[in-house]
Structures are given as structure tokens and as C-alpha cells.
Amino acid sequence: MTIELLNQVSRQTFETVLLVGGPVLLVSLIVGVLISIFQAITQLQEVTLTFVPKIVAIFITLLLTLPWTVKVLVGFTRGLYENIPLYVK
Predict the structure, then answer these.
(1) Which helix (H) or strand (E) holds 31?
(2) Among residues 41, 20, 22, which one has the least CA distance to residue 30?
(3) Can you tell me the distance from the alpha carbon of 34 to that of 54, in angstroms, rounded to the nearest whole number?
(4) Domain assignment of residue 7, given as a range
(5) What are the pLDDT digits (tens) for 25-79?
(6) How many independent structural domains does the chain possess?
(7) CA dihedral over 73, 77, 80, 83, signed as positive or negative
(8) Which residues of 19-52 are buried (b: 16+ CB within 10 A; e: fewer)?
(9) What pTM does this model have?
(10) Are 28 and 54 in contact (CB under 8 A)?
(11) CB under 8 Å to 10, separation ≥6 — which residues?
């Protein structure tokens, strides 16, 4: 396995991780900021108010993006398996 091939596989791995994790992290960030603004405006400092909406939003995001996520992960894994002869050289 050459350095160039290792760099390419590493880059593809990081891209896949960002693609799969990005939507969930983005939704969690947006919901967290909105809840924080709501808490600052109302001065309501309830701990469960931050967790429950985030969990619900993340669950809905996972349900909506599941087919796309599986497609991305299967494509990445298939690419790894198809290129095994290149890795062994």
C-alpha cells in the first residue's frame, strides 16, 4: 500500500464520517441554540428542557436520513472491498 493510496482512503473515510454525522450534528446544534435562546429569554433553567427536544430532533433526523446514510455507508464499504487488490500490492 503506497502513501498516496493511504491518503486517498483516509480522505474518503473522513468525508464519509462527515457526510454521515453532519446532519445529526447540525440539527443538534440548531436545536441546542434555539433552546438556549428560549431559556435566556424566559430565564427558565430546566435541565430536561435541553435534552428532550434534542433527543427528539436527533431521532427524527436519523429516521429521515437513514436511507441516505445507509446508501453512503454501503457505497464506501463496497469501494473498500472492490479495491482490496490495490491494497495488497
Answers:
(1) helix 3-42
(2) 22
(3) 10
(4) 3-88
(5) 999 999 999 998 998 898 888 777 888 889 999 999 999 999 999 999 999 999 9
(6) 1
(7) negative
(8) ebeebbeebeeebeeebeeeeeeeeeeeeeebee
(9) 0.77
(10) yes
(11) none
